């Protein structure tokens, strides 16, 4: 039974596919209420409230995936998740419209002082002259961060007759032109805007982006809005610029610490606030919960997810094309790791023929995961394989060649160890399967599956018989056997596929046969 912990409030309608699945148990409780069972969950679903820290990940020993029912993953230690091989996914566009609408509601409320007027009337006052606002029409709106939400805010601003200026260092000219916005530098935006709204993620670069230096570059009387993440506008700087009257008003949906407690910003009459409500609509919550529920189901079925933060994302179409090579590469990694039972410095992979045209990042990660699995104690999979390889000083590279070298497709693997170099070539043949066609310098043809026995010997009459007799005497059945040699009378190999694994004594017995140089058990 798969167990999923839903640690923050989520739409039941969105979670329906998980709740309806009889093979899944969904537990809707806070992390603190299931401390004793944390190691039993396969998946964890959160919004922004639950902090997915390294300590929590350590406790959740069986965790395979974290689903963020929303956009921002700044409450998740993605690096730690990656190290532990835990996939992190989010729901990137389910709450875009709601957050853009909330931003707009905040903007209108801010310049017309609606929350203040509301409180006044509710206090039985009727003070119309105290609440004279300004129009949005004709004003210059500066949007910092022009992604999904920023661009939806821009559309609404244009409909209100505003001039829109955008700063986003990652925005392509073509996209900006298509949407028809004025793309400018941060300094230009700060100098021109009557109202500034931020829509970036919280990163090292965006933390304190609107701090003392940049706030000083804004127009006197500027309005500021943050419906993205607390900290993008530096709260201490904001206090100073409100106190000196430079900033006319601020709308905040988010805070550096949530809840903000008795924060000094809350004392300003011209600061309006909501408790992180950008995504809090029925529609957005159904959307994001549906998206993560669907993605988690897909993941649990062993299929690729499309909105992963720490894995290359794959469409179903691309996944179907790479799936066979993904499996072949995994087996090649497992075989190479067992053959090269020594420290290795480099793994070089060459993709040839049709596979060279595919998205190989995933295939490479699969190969690395196969290679590293027998060498590391912790979970290793396509999420953390590249990171673990780097941590262990194993360099890896990919090369591509249009020429399949006699095969429609092939993957060639070269492993550089401290004392020796090992090469292997594999191919996938449709309706037939995976074949290893080159192993350790020998042309051969075997299926990388099951209990394999590799024997390197001198090419002499009777060698196969000697091996066969010993195995037969010990009731070990040989399922298949392939041979290869470099030249008649030279070095040769046998690759046997056995019905059961060999024990150590039998390996030693085979090693004692004269003219046998190497005996290796390989398990795939
Ligand atoms: N208040 C709420 O409830 C919600 C808040 N959010 C927050 O809104 C923010 C934006 O979300 P989306 O638009 O969906 O994300 P997005 O990823 O579509 O857009 C972010 C944009 O910021 C830009 N950016 C990154 N670094 C930048 C920098 N240093 N300077 C300027 N621009 C930069 C990126 O190029 C990108 O275009 C996120 O922080 C997200 O967590 C999202 C949903 C709800
Ligand atoms: O999606 C986001 O980034 C949000 O900030 C929404 O947060 P929430 O899911 O409402 O806690």
Automatic annotation (TrEMBL):
Single GO MF annotation: NAD binding
Which keywords does this chain's UniProt record carry?
Amino-acid biosynthesis, NAD, Oxidoreductase, Serine biosynthesis
Q: Does the keyword Nucleotidyltransferase apply?
A: no
Q: Which reaction does it catalyse?
A: (R)-2-hydroxyglutarate + NAD(+) = 2-oxoglutarate + NADH + H(+); (2R)-3-phosphoglycerate + NAD(+) = 3-phosphooxypyruvate + NADH + H(+)
Any GO BP annotation: L-serine biosynthetic process
Q: Which residues span the membrane?
A: none
PROSITE patterns, per database record: ACT, D_2_HYDROXYACID_DH_1, D_2_HYDROXYACID_DH_2, D_2_HYDROXYACID_DH_3
| A Pfam family | 2-Hacid_dh
Pathway, according to UniProt? Amino-acid biosynthesis; L-serine biosynthesis; L-serine from 3-phospho-D-glycerate: step 1/3
Ranges for the ACT domain?
452-524
**CDD domains named among the record's database cross-references:** ACT_3PGDH-xct, PGDH_4
Which Gene3D superfamilies is this protein grouped with?
Answer: 3.30.70.260, D-3-phosphoglycerate dehydrogenase, domain 3, NAD(P)-binding Rossmann-like Domain
Q: EC number(s) in its UniProt entry?
A: 1.1.1.95
Xref: InterPro entries: ACT-like_dom_sf (IPR045865), ACT_dom (IPR002912), ASB_dom_sf (IPR029009), D-2-hydroxyacid_DH (IPR050857), D-isomer_2_OHA_DH_cat_dom (IPR006139), D-isomer_DH_CS (IPR029753), D-isomer_DH_CS1 (IPR029752), D-isomer_DH_NAD-bd (IPR006140)
Instruction: Spell out the family assignment given in the record's similarity comment.
Output: Belongs to the D-isomer specific 2-hydroxyacid dehydrogenase family.
State its role: Catalyzes the reversible oxidation of 3-phospho-D-glycerate to 3-phosphonooxypyruvate, the first step of the phosphorylated L-serine biosynthesis pathway. Also catalyzes the reversible oxidation of 2-hydroxyglutarate to 2-oxoglutarate.
Task: State the name under which the record lists this protein.
Answer: D-3-phosphoglycerate dehydrogenase
Q: What is the lineage of its organism?
A: Bacteria, Bacillati, Bacillota, Bacilli, Bacillales
